[in-house]
Amino acid sequence: MILPIVAYGDPVLKKKAINIDKDYPKLNELIDNMYETMYGAYGVGLAAPQIGLAIRMFLVDASPFAEDESLSEEEQEQLKTFKKTFINAQILEEDGEEWAFNEGCLSIPDVREDVFRQPKIKIQYQDENFDTHVEEFDGLIARVIQHEYDHIEGVLFTDKLSSFKKRLLKGRLTNISKGKIKIDYKMRFPLMSKKR
């Protein structure tokens, strides 16, 4: 089932999410719905806060990046098969010289900006079976994980922009929170029901 994606301005996007255990109600159904929601919005990642749940879970399917011809064959192959569910994730290390990449977010449609992040991460997480993993990722996969991880920490990519850039975007962000935007997927807007 496709769920509505929470738009910029909803308080759930600024909350630090909480850990869950394997008894979380209807977890497998939730994971399936999140993948369906992400694919329906043409996303490569989706975090639980983006569907209104302040829990430490996100998923990533980096396969759309595999078509980027500027990447090596090895990177394309790695991206083609990268699909993971991350539960109770903790980034243990971030390493390397920061690099810029133009990021967007399903909760902030039609806004894309360069964000600087370190290229390598080490992360501990549990999969959908609650098996624990500690893995290292780099490049685009690390970037998508960092972006989704920020969501469970209550951080949006726009929080990482300069105050000048934030001022330039203020009007567009306000319009998103009021639902004054054209999108082709289901969204929930925090300010639509409030009087302007």
From TrEMBL:
Removes the formyl group from the N-terminal Met of newly synthesized proteins. Requires at least a dipeptide for an efficient rate of reaction. N-terminal L-methionine is a prerequisite for activity but the enzyme has broad specificity at other positions. The keyword Magnesium does not apply. It holds the Pfam family Pep_deformylase. It comes from Winogradskyella litoriviva. Signal peptide: none annotated. The active site is at E148. Its EC number is 3.5.1.88. GO terms for molecular function: peptide deformylase activity. Its cofactor is Fe(2+). Fe cation binds at C105, H147, H151. PANTHER family: PEPTIDE DEFORMYLASE. This is Peptide deformylase. Belongs to the polypeptide deformylase family. It catalyses: N-terminal N-formyl-L-methionyl-[peptide] + H2O = N-terminal L-methionyl-[peptide] + formate.
